[in-house]
Design brief:
This protein has 369 residues and is α/β, with parallel strands linked by helices. The chain has two domains: 16-255 and 356-368, Rossmann fold, CATH 3.40.50.300; 273-346, CBS domain Like. It contains 14 helices and 13 strands. It starts with 27 loop residues before the first strand and ends with a helix. The protein binds adenosine-5'-diphosphate and magnesium ion (MG). The site of magnesium ion (MG) has 2 residues, from helix 1.
């Protein structure tokens, strides 16, 4: 095992440091977007429409070759569009100067793209430099971002990418993309090359960071579990860049639009749904003086993980504790059953009143906002 990439070497909660962040975010709308590569018989994307509200994370998920990367490259105009339109903040990206546009869109991909012969600080400063920011402002922004991603320890800014772990490099990639405070971030399988432990940690940290920066984010993955964890909304693509469903994770898990989606989310979608609820949101049994047992978990633990713990302990109830290890209540298998029954009774409407949009045809912007 490569110890350079293990958790101990990563700072704790690295994305969640306090920072002065702007609050720029813009709505993104794809309108009947299509892309046909030269020499390709079928379009890579045919008539894709969906809207991402400002400040939301939209996860694009789908099998390999379903056009996820193509969609990202169309949005920041790295490749020309064949048909349709893309609006950022209500304005067509096609009317923009492509280079100027790209400076307004943070782009993170796996394995890249840090410049190996530039220091971490220089890498992060790339776009601010292109924008001609004064030196002092760039230096201030770089140190702010290093602290935001938890890499502000002495000397890290002067290191080269090869001198960091994979997880640290990925954080630097995120910092570089955030440098000029872009209203939109595109992230193409950003954590795909990271080992599972650090990957889960990067996901958590990224969600904490997003709480602060509230960017509009399009996040690509082929991993449905990552999509469920990261997305406010999930756009599921099938072969040919066709939208199979665009919905909240809960709706997709509760009401998959068709067999393709049902298969994609997996036969265990009922269990996956339990990952959307935390113990803090559950009805619990009164502790009645119970001391925290060996089987305990905090309020932020998902019901899915709690169920797994209970099963591993042959069905013993789990003690839910607060930050000070005080017992808040007990979770039993029958309370989890109750949750599933309540959710089934709730029907199609999300607790937060979000409008459910399903199907490829009626999923354009208006209905989703
Ligand atoms: P994903 O990111 O979902 O795996 P891509 O967007 O990379 O999918 O690819 C979508 C389809 O377009 C695939 O069939 C792929 O082979 C094709 N494709 C991607 N890039 C090119 C290209 N530069 N030229 C021709 N075909 C391409
Ligand atoms: Mg791809």
């Amino acid at each position: 095992m490569n110890t350079a990439d293990t958790a101990q070497h990563e700072g704790s909660n690295a994305f969640a440091q306090p920072g002065e962040q702007g609050s720029k975010a813009a709505e993104l709308e794809l309108r009947h977007v299509s892309k046909r590569y030269a020499g390709q018989r079928e379009p890579a994307i045919g008539g894709l429409s969906f809207t991402v509200p400002a400040g939301d994370v939209c996860v694009l998920v789908g099998p390999s070759g379903s056009g996820k990367t193509t969609a990202m490259r169309l949005i920041n105009r790295m490749i020309p569009i064949s048909g349709g339109d893309i609006l950022l903040g209500g304005r067509s990206v096609l009317q923009r100067d492509a280079r100027e546009l790209r400076r307004e869109i943070g782009y993170v991909i796996q394995q890249i793209g840090l410049f190996p012969h530039q220091t971490i600080a220089e890498n992060i400063a790339t776009v601010p430099k292109l924008l001609g920011w004064p030196k002092q402002r760039i230096a201030a922004r770089v140190s702010e971002l290093l602290s935001l991603i938890g890499l502000d320890a002495e000397g890290i800014g002067e290191r080269y990418p090869a001198q960091l772990s994979g997880g640290q490099r990925q954080r630097v990639g995120v910092a570089r993309a955030l440098a000029a405070d872009p209203p939109l971030m595109l992230m193409d399988e950003p954590f795909g090359a990271i080992d599972p432990i650090n990957r889960a940690r990067l996901q958590d940290e990224f969600l904490a960071l997003q709480e602060k920066v509230r960017k509009t984010i399009v996040f690509v993955t082929h991993d449905i579990d990552e999509a469920i964890k990261m997305g406010d909304r999930i756009a599921i693509l099938r072969e040919g860049g066709e939208l199979a469903q665009y919905d909240t994770p809960r709706e997709i898990l509760t009401h998959p639009a068709d067999d393709f989606v049902a298969q994609f989310v997996g036969a265990d979608r009922g269990i996956k749904r339990l990952s959307l609820t935390t113990l803090g949101e559950m009805k619990l049994l009164e502790p009645n003086g119970t001391k925290p047992g060996a089987l305990r978990a905090g309020a932020k633990t998902s019901v899915r993980d709690a169920l797994s713990m209970i099963i591993t302990a042959d069905g013993a109830p789990l003690t839910v504790v607060d930050e000070n290890d005080r017992v808040k209540g007990l979770l039993t298998l029958s309370l989890i059953e109750q949750l599933l029954a309540d959710e089934a009774a709730e029907g199609r409407h999300d607790a937060d009143g979000a409008v459910a949009v399903t199907g490829a045809d009626d999923s354009s912007g208006e209905a989703a906002t």
